[in-house]
Design brief:
The structure holds two protein chains of two kinds.
Chain A (H helix, E strand, L loop, with lengths): L4 E7 L5 H7 L5 H7 E5 L8 H5 L6 E7 L2 E3 H13 E7 L1 H5 L11 H11 L14 E4 L2 E4 L3 E6 L9 E3 L6 H17 L66 H4 L19 H10 L10 H9 L4 H5 L23
Parallel strand pairs in A: 1-2, 1-3, 3-5, 5-9
Antiparallel strand pairs in A: 4-8, 6-7
Chain B lengths: L7 H4 L3 E6 L11 H9 L4 E7 L5 H13 L4 E6 L10 H9 L8 E5 L1 H5 L5 H20 L8 E2 L3 E5 L3 H12 L3 E5 L14 E3 L7 E3 H13 L4 E4 L2 E9 L2 E8 L14 H5 L3 E3 L8 E3 L1 E2 L11 E2 L9 H5 L12 E7 L1 E4 L3 E3 L15 E3 H10 L12 E8 L19 H15 L4 E6 L8 H12 L3 E4 L1 E8 L2 E7 L19 E6 L1 E6 L1 E3 L4 H6 L28 E3 L9 H21 L1 E2 L6 E3 L9 H5 L5 E4 L2 E4 L9 H5 L5 E3 L4 H11 L10 E6 L2 H11 L8 E6 L7 H9 L4 E6 L10 H18 L7 E5 L5 H18 L3 H10 L5
Parallel strand pairs in B: 1-2, 1-3, 3-4, 6-7, 6-18, 7-10, 18-29, 20-27, 21-22, 21-27, 22-23, 35-36, 35-37, 37-38
Antiparallel strand pairs in B: 5-30, 8-9, 11-12, 12-17, 13-14, 15-16, 19-28, 24-25, 25-26, 31-34, 32-33
Helix pairs in contact in B: 2-6, 6-18, 7-8, 7-15, 11-12, 12-13, 19-22
The chains are: A alpha/beta, B alpha/beta.
Chain lengths: ~325, ~800
């Protein structure tokens, strides 16, 4: 006899794709309802935050948290769910590693506001107003959440039990998560903390194209839009920087099947020290035609130097969890003697 | 194959620490007494000795005795550099350990002399650093593991190509008692040497030999040695590396003629109705489908060219020896070998690529073709008449660089000038009625004593030399016209006989043109080169191992030797020298019968490997092969460069005794003695060049900031960029990576790979607001100690200006938010 579980799903700094992905499991969503009651899901159900706040600590069985944390409100949400959920699952790449919003860490609040509220051609802001956390109006004081300088992955603000990566998570992996919930409902058993609901190996392990890899160097980098890739051939053989070797499998190779290289949304594999520097190290080694002895140093480096944006290329979904997780101000706070 | 040792004696470290005062040369600047005290406190240390000079004979004897008496299984030496000490280098340490029971992998050296006592004057600070250096060696030693058992080497060698070089290798090995299989594609032994009637020595005037004489002698040395199996008309169809050895599939051509029964009477050729161009005669003359390529061919037997034979059976009818079997079939056999010698010779440059040469004309030929005329009689192929004017063109399709027009290889084959002088000299001595002109472009390269002497001789003979560029060679009614352009720099004819016209041209009438063409890599050998995992240079010749000066014929793949013209243009004598050198290079391995594994070898964990083959892409030593289970690094071929570690996306690859854990442990203890406020500088220095360059800073009296530490890494390319990132996280303020100078990497291109990765890392660091001054790569060779000292000094200054590394601060702040 299943013990029906209480579930919540929260939406933080994310595009909304994670919420849609949960709806995309179609009729299987009903199997979730068989084993669980959904107490809170802003995108789909009419419960309010106050309803959650009213619940006591540990009163929710499973919290699904999608999105990164980049505002005081999202931080409060994270703390609120952590306190109330027995199990907290980071749902999607943004919650797991910061995701695409995490790339904002190359800037900060001032820099982002400058672009968003002043520089973009579509902005009309003649008075140069920036959002404020507190604003006095005739009716009284209105407040906005504080916008942080830094985007955080969920586990940088609260303890996380499980990770369901992907941008968004794929149906198969969502169903894995449902099965975890189901097993919990039926037997109370849970996987070990920190489990990532994905393959333990990198994507190449399940990629049908890996057998076409010859071990050749990448003489010249082709960006995905520059060539029509051969759908039967490993992207690395075609000079396309595919993040498959550096990314957990389990996604079913959705991008590869659409003839696009892996961009890394399932995040790093277990042993990696840093999600992006590993890719930098490998590509820094194999990009360039070889025969270096016969080249000048600039010629030798030309192919590697054609990588214009290492952060965007190697940390597309993972910057907040990198060793250097945001732009630093090295040398700007000099030691005073 | 796994590299593990579960011996309990090894599992429980018993560390012996020897600290050497170097008779004051260390102890003046470093308080070694305090080091002794601290060493005694280290876990697992059972013996600590401070000695005046460990390198003297009595101390060494005492060291050996005490290592045994105290059952020490790990040896830590603090003193001079293992790399550059002239009295107690790692070779000496190995010899000491060899005489005890301690595995040769189980030692580390704390270099407190060259990179400590000698470069820092402040005794207190130098002592603090020395203690850090001791700790670094200690934490590394604790995780060292003994080497796996040696790999058995198959006691048989494979020589591919039976030219002068391969024959020399085979007979030298045979004399040493080694078993050899020699595979030769042609039906005879001797290769191109047999096509060249007059051979010469390069350094000794006037030694000459005719190949009719020496060809069979050189062939007989292998042919009749019981240790050599000579397989003519055969090929190596496939070759792969298996368990530290080589597995070859040999294709033995059909034995239509039994070489033992054949008595070389020639009756078969007399009746054979089929004629075909003779490859031996470079297509200038023909042979029969059954024939002997030349009279003195070894083995002494006729052979059938399958592509020309119609199986009419006439030869079978007349053969008095019953030696012919037209039903013979090709066979294949697979065999394992412990060493491979690639002596596949050369191709000649394809002259038809250059339209200006009009190589299709019958009286325009290559130098190799002309050798056959020298043997068979110098007559014009077009009409069989004696030529009145022969023109030799040097650098035909060679040295095609800079301003020289036309297609060609960019290098100098270094043999053609000498060979042409020989050919001209032969003509000058025997054909008094024939005029000879030599057209050269840049210069005459008569660099050996013999070449110069021949050049001098032909000039005294009055041979005509003309400097210019071939504009075009065209056929005329009774010969060939050669239009020569004056060089743009205005240089003129050396011979007064020719005058350039107003437009700068002169036209010569000749009836035979000989084009001295380049020696090029053997195309048919390319699949073997690939399968063996050999690195090739930009021209396609297999590269020799670095340092090339001391490793003649050794390739980058262990026990694969590239011999003779297969490695680059050579004359016969030089090829023979290489044949002997290669045999001698291989002999120690073959005689020992096993290959001791290195302390550092890579191991790839199949649990994490996804067969992306990136490790194989970067491996310069052909050590990695891809199996169903994943990539496999063969420890007998691995040379421990660590490229795979730096490139493996999933950390499936690790370098034994140079693990990430060992390096990070070293980082964690490296900077305890650095005074507050001083930047923590880490120098990662490649095993051979850069580390020695840094050592010699001390030897030459240079002074460095006391806050730098160094790790002697394998190759500069053995450190993963993510590990560099992790070092920043652990608080290192600045990292310098030193690699060998350009062209000198011991693993082909590790220095360049690191240079590239560092550029990319710096771009990343710039994006992330971490000063690029915190990471630097440079090419540091042994003589570059001043450059090293300047670099570290400049880094110290820059880092002091920058302040502490913000990565460490940032990550420690971040960790406070965890676990809420």
């Amino acid at each position: 006899m299943a013990d029906k579980k209480k579930i919540v799903m929260n939406w933080a700094s994310a595009c909304g794709g994670c919420d849609v992905s949960l709806l995309d499991i179609e009729e299987k969503i009903f199997s979730v309802l068989d084993i669980a009651d959904i107490l809170y899901w802003p995108v789909a159900m009419d419960f309010k935050r106050q309803d959650v706040l009213a619940l006591g600590p540990g009163s929710i069985d499973i919290g699904l948290f999608n999105g990164a944390v980049r505002s005081s409100e999202q931080l409060e949400d994270a703390l609120m769910l952590r306190e109330r959920c027995k199990v907290l699952i980071a749902y999607g790449a943004c919650a797991c590693f910061g995701g695409i919003p995490g790339l904002a860490n190359v800037s900060d609040r001032a820099g982002i506001f400058e672009v968003a509220y002043h520089e973009t051609p579509s902005t009309v802001n003649p008075e140069g107003v920036d959002p404020q956390t507190v604003c006095l109006v005739p009716e009284g004081e209105v407040t906005l959440p504080e916008f942080f300088d830094t985007v955080y992955a969920l586990n940088q603000v609260v303890r996380v039990d499980y990770y369901l990566p992907g941008c968004p998570p794929t149906e198969e992996r969502i169903l894995d998560a449902v099965n975890i919930i189901s097993a919990y409902a039926h037997s109370g058993e849970l996987p070990p903390p920190g489990t990532v609901v994905a393959s333990q190996k990198a994507l190449c392990d399940e990629c049908p194209r890996v057998s076409t890899r010859t071990g050749a160097r990448i003489a010249r980098i082709n960006r995905p839009h520059e060539i029509i890739a051969d759908p039967g051939l490993c992207f690395l053989e075609q000079g396309v920087l595919c993040m498959g070797p550096f990314t957990r499998g389990g996604c079913g190779g959705k991008c590869i099947n659409a003839n696009m290289p892996c961009r890394g949304c399932f995040g790093p594999t277990e042993r990696m020290l840093d999600p992006g520097a590993e890719a930098l190290s490998a590509f820094g080694s194999i990009v360039g035609a070889g025969g270096e002895d016969a080249l000048t140093i600039p010629e030798m480096k030309a192919a590697v130097n054609s990588i214009k944006d290492p952060v965007g290329t190697f940390y597309r979904f993972t910057l907040p969890t990198a060793i250097i997780n945001r732009t630093l101000k090295d040398g700007r706070n000099k030691v005073k003697k | 194959m796994t590299v593990e040792n579960t011996s309990s004696a090894v599992n429980k470290p018993r560390i012996g620490v020897w600290i050497c005062d170097c008779q004051g040369r260390v102890s003046t600047n470093v308080d070694t007494v305090s080091l002794v005290e601290r060493a005694r406190e280290m876990d697992g240390v059972v013996t600590v000795r401070r000695v005046d000079a460990l390198c003297n004979t009595e101390e060494l004897a005492r060291l050996r005795a005490e290592l045994k008496e105290n059952n020490i299984n790990r040896f830590l030496f603090a003193g001079c550099s293992a790399r550059s000490s002239l009295r107690f280098p790692e070779q000496q340490i190995s010899a000491v350990l060899e005489s005890t029971e301690i595995d040769k992998a189980m030692f580390e050296v704390a270099n407190i002399r060259e990179q400590c006592a000698w470069v820092h004057d402040d005794r207190k600070a130098a002592t603090a650093k020395a203690l850090d250096v001791l700790r670094m060696a200690y934490v590394r030693l604790k995780l060292d593991t003994p080497r796996a058992p040696a790999t058995k080497i198959v006691p048989r060698s494979l020589v591919i190509g039976g030219g002068p070089a391969g024959l020399q290798t085979a007979q030298d090995l045979a004399v040493l008692g080694q078993q050899v299989t020699l595979v030769e594609q042609a039906s005879y032994l001797g290769g191109r040497m047999c096509q060249i009637p007059f051979l010469f020595q390069t350094e000794n005037w006037p030694g000459r030999c005719v190949s009719t004489c020496v060809g069979p002698v050189q062939a007989a040395g292998s042919m009749f040695h019981p240790n050599v199996e000579c397989l003519t008309s055969s090929e190596v169809a496939d070759i792969e590396r298996v368990d530290g050895n080589f597995r070859a599939r040999l294709r033995l051509g059909a034995r239509f003629v039994d070489t033992e029964k054949c008595i070389s009477c020639g009756k078969c050729a007399e009746v054979c109705p089929e004629e075909i161009e003779s490859e031996f005669d470079e297509g200038l003359f023909s042979r029969k489908a059954i024939d002997k390529d030349f009279p003195r061919a070894v083995p002494d037997a006729y052979n059938i060219l399958e592509r020309a034979c119609t199986m009419c059976g006439k030869c079978v009818e007349v053969c008095p020896a019953g030696a012919i079997n037209l039903a013979a079939q090709a066979e294949e056999k697979e065999e394992d070998f412990g060493a491979v010698f690639l002596s596949t010779g050369f191709d000649t440059y394809d002259l038809s690529r250059n339209h200006e040469f009009n190589y299709g004309l019958p009286d325009v030929m290559s130098g190799m073709e002309f050798e056959r005329l020298l043997d068979r009689g110098v007559l014009r192929p077009s009409n069989g008449q004696t030529p009145r004017h022969i023109v030799f063109v040097l650098c035909a399709g060679s040295r095609a660089t800079r301003d020289k027009r036309g297609e060609g290889v960019s290098y100098c084959s270094k043999t053609c000038c000498g060979i042409t002088m020989k050919q001209v000299e032969r003509l000058g001595l025997t054909m008094n009625e024939t005029d000879i002109t030599v057209i050269y472009y840049y210069d005459i390269r008569a660099y050996e004593r013999t070449f110069e002497a021949m050049y001098d001789h032909v000039k005294r003979m009055g041979i005509d030399f003309l400097q210019g560029e071939i504009e075009g060679i065209t056929g005329s009614d009774d010969g060939v016209k050669i239009r020569v352009a004056r060089l743009e720099d205005g240089s003129t004819s050396a011979g007064a006989a020719h005058t350039f016209d107003a437009e700068g041209f002169v036209t010569l009438d000749a009836d035979l043109v000989v084009l001295a063409s380049a020696q090029t890599p053997r195309r048919e050998a390319q699949p073997l080169v690939r399968k063996l995992g050999l690195q090739t240079d930009q021209f396609g010749f297999p590269m020799e191992n670095q340092p090339r000066i001391f490793r003649p014929t050794e390739s980058f793949v262990d026990r694969v030797y590239v011999v003779g013209a297969a490695a680059g243009p050579k004359v016969v004598q030089q090829s023979v020298e290489q044949g002997s050198a290669a045999a001698m290079k291989a002999a120690p391995h073959l005689i020992k019968g096993e290959k001791d594994l290195l302390k550092f070898v890579s191991r790839i964990d199949p649990a994490a490997c996804v067969r992306c083959r990136i490790c194989e892409t970067v491996c310069p030593h052909g050590a990695i092969k891809i199996t169903e289970k994943g990539a496999l690094s063969d420890p007998a071929f691995c040379q421990g460069c660590g490229f795979c570690i730096a490139a493996c996306p999933t950390h499936a690859a690790e370098l034994i005794n140079f693990t990430e854990q060992q390096i990070l442990d070293q980082i964690d203890v490296a900077f305890q003695g650095v005074p507050p406020g001083a930047p923590k500088i880490l120098a990662l220095l490649c095993y051979w060049c850069s580390y020695c360059g840094a050592d010699l800073a001390g030897a030459s009296g240079l002074k460095l900031p006391v806050n730098y530490r160094s790790i002697r890494i394998r190759c500069s390319s053995s450190v993963n960029s993510a590990l560099v990132m992790e070092m920043f996280r652990r608080g290192v303020d600045g990292i310098f990576v030193g690699g060998c100078p350009p062209g000198s990497c011991h693993h082909v291109n590790g220095n360049y790979l690191t240079d590239k990765r560092t550029s990319l890392m710096q771009k990343l660091m710039a994006q992330l607001g971490l000063s690029e001054k915190r990471l630097k790569f440079d090419y540091i060779g042994v003589p570059h100690s001043q450059k090293f000292a300047d670099t570290i000094t400049a880094m110290d200054r820059d880092l002091r200006e920058l302040g502490p590394n913000p990565v460490a601060v940032n990550t420690s702040e971040r960790s406070e938010t965890h676990g809420r």
